[in-house]
Amino acid sequence: MDSIALKSLFYSLLISITILIISSCNGRDSNIVNSDKNENKPIPLTLIIHGGAGEIKPGFLSEEQEKGYKAKIEEALNAGYAVLSEGGESVNAVQASIKIMEDSPLFNAGKGAVLNHEGVVSMDASIMRGSDLNAGAITGIRHIKNPILLARLVMDSSKHVFLSGDGAEEFAANYGLETEVNNYFIIPRRFQQLKKKLGSDTLHLSYNNLEVGDKYGTVGCVAIDAKGNIAAGTSTGGMVNKQWGRIGDSPIIGAGTFADNNSCGISATGHGEYFIRLSIARNIADLINYKGLSIQEAAHEVIQNQLSDLGGTGGIIGIDNKGNYCFEFNTPGMYRGVLQEGENAEISFYGK
To answer: In the chain, what are the domains?
Structure first.
């Protein structure tokens, strides 16, 4: 073979190798969620909510009670989705949905929240915006009518993320947030629930031996808007008969609430101590970001494996940055609903 032929062969091989290297580099991140081959595909407006998980089994609720829960969940879905459909921000949609549930005595958040050991309602809430990772959280609130509004105020109008107790309420007073006497939040059912726990010398709700109908009282919402911005929020009265200023996961960013446009938004409900130890919400986001798992795969791994292996129970709702959503829980049921663009609302209580 002459020198000209050898040079031609050499250059042909060099070009082929270069093409292979370039192709390899372009495909390297193809398994990462954020690298979507259909990145121009419209993201569907999506809003998902929960009203707590636990020993929620068929037959626990009467037909009338089921209708009541479904109606309130549907109202909350519609309130939040209306914000999205009008071009509003996901954080406003989350706030609107949670406010509906806080105002309802059906859920353990706002009016109807459980009582602590002293017979007082003490509430927590958090909210997070995925576009800039800004967040607001409050704990130990006793007089703010809608705790989610105060969490939002902390996020938007302070340099802080987490305020507590009297200081948080003093901050709220500067902005004229609506307040109520603590008795406003107390309903007869919660008083009887506390009385039962005190009578049995139970210091807290036994998460490993829940009675039928007991649930982890938390409400939450996650949404993604037309701009692809994700937001998540959570609100709760915490654990019935709680003592010593106990704080669960709901107001803790990364445990009970998390939102990041690069991965997903999560709101959790469950045995808070375990959710804190596992950083449940952030854990799911990290599995999406760093292992390339889908939101369904990540949520299943964290709830069904990691949480269950530790002995914890509860669940999450989530939406990823493509509008895919999931419910994942290891309890018999969870009050939940979703409304996605182009689809009818779906509301469920029991099983999967």
So the answer is: 46-350 (3.60.20.30)
